[in-house]
Specification:
eight-stranded parallel β-sheet; binds fe (ii) ion; alpha/beta; TIM Barrel; globular
């Protein structure tokens, strides 16, 4: 670690001496390879607060939804300060809308940057999604067309975000209920191109992957064989439900079903993420059940 710091300082000084652009230094800070191993954790929700402080050893790190803090009063930021003392925190964004053709909202981006600086995490994450279009807030994560034009929009917006936020960015796959027309790329081509052109990591939501594979009748193993597995930094897992029309919905409202554990086992046999996060937003069970799921993920991750 000490040696790495010396190399970095040496390289940085060399850049300054020869007048190289500060963006080069930024690229070094964005490197995914420096992200430490994190283990298995939980998406933080206020409802878990007291259990987490009673049993902090039950998990390894927390993911916080950064949108919950952007316009929040100082007491909420104080909560972050307290959480930071016990856990590594990974900020997870909902509303940057990386697929918006009009570009990113600069005020929102400023707020996100401020919060990430405050948290000082190993990396931060956002979705490959659209939440704003033509000045309208859509109110949920909408999928993109898998087209060359949409790819250019994502790459441009991600580069804008990376210029302002020097922490590594990790992007999450989302679900889609139907395939949008006018795509000229496959989902795996689209995903791969975004990751490689922007040098971002992948937050592979295995429940989203399984949900899409089930709803659109494809093999998730084949999907995984077509994406850069070495870019997978983190996993999400959760339980959803099957609607009456047979469509799977990723609702984060149920315990993790066996099918998702099977996907996790397979994914962990083909890649080496740094961390795994359980997401639970509705129908919150007793904390003992949450701990059981984290324990099971730890076992599959080979942590004991
Ligand atoms: Fe997720």
């Amino acid at each position: 670690m000490y040696q790495k710091t010396i190399y970095f300082l040496f390289f940085r000084n060399l850049c300054l001496v020869f007048g190289l652009f500060p963006e080069k230094i930024q690229t070094m800070k964005n490197e995914l390879s420096n992200i430490p191993f994190l283990g298995v954790g939980l998406g933080f929700r206020s409802v878990f607060k007291s259990d987490l402080f009673l049993e902090p050893q039950s998990l390894d790190f927390l993911e916080i939804t950064l949108d919950h803090y952007l316009d929040a009063p100082p007491s909420k930021w104080r909560e972050l300060e307290i959480l930071k003392q016990s856990f590594t925190l990974i900020p997870h964004g909902l509303n940057l809308s990386l697929g918006t053709a009009q570009g990113l909202d600069p005020k929102y981006l400023d707020q996100v940057a401020r919060l990430i600086e405050f948290v000082d995490p190993p990396y931060w994450s956002e979705h490959i999604a659209i939440t704003k279009a033509g000045g309208i807030e859509i109110g949920h994560l909408s999928p993109s067309v898998f087209s060359t034009e949409a790819l250019e929009v994502f790459v441009r917006n991600i580069e804008t975000a990376k210029r302002q936020i020097s922490y590594p960015l990790v992007l999450e796959n989302i679900t889609y209920l139907f395939e949008l027309p006018n795509s000229n790329l496959s989902e795996t081509q689209f995903l791969t191109q975004i990751l490689e052109q922007t040098d971002c990591g992948l937050l592979l939501d295995i429940t989203n992957l399984y949900t899409n594979a089930y709803n659109h009748r494809f093999d998730y193993r084949q999907f995984l064989s077509q994406i850069p597995l070495e870019r997978i930094i983190q996993l999400h897992f959760a339980g959803g439900f099957e609607a009456s029309n047979g469509v799977l919905i990723d609702s984060h409202s149920q315990n993790t079903p066996q099918e998702i554990w099977d996907v996790m086992e397979y994914v962990l046999s083909v890649c080496q993420p740094k961390g795994i996060i359980l997401e639970r937003d509705e129908n919150i069970p007793p904390f003992a059940e949450i701990k059981q799921e984290i324990k099971k993920a730890k076992r599959l991750f080979g942590l004991y």
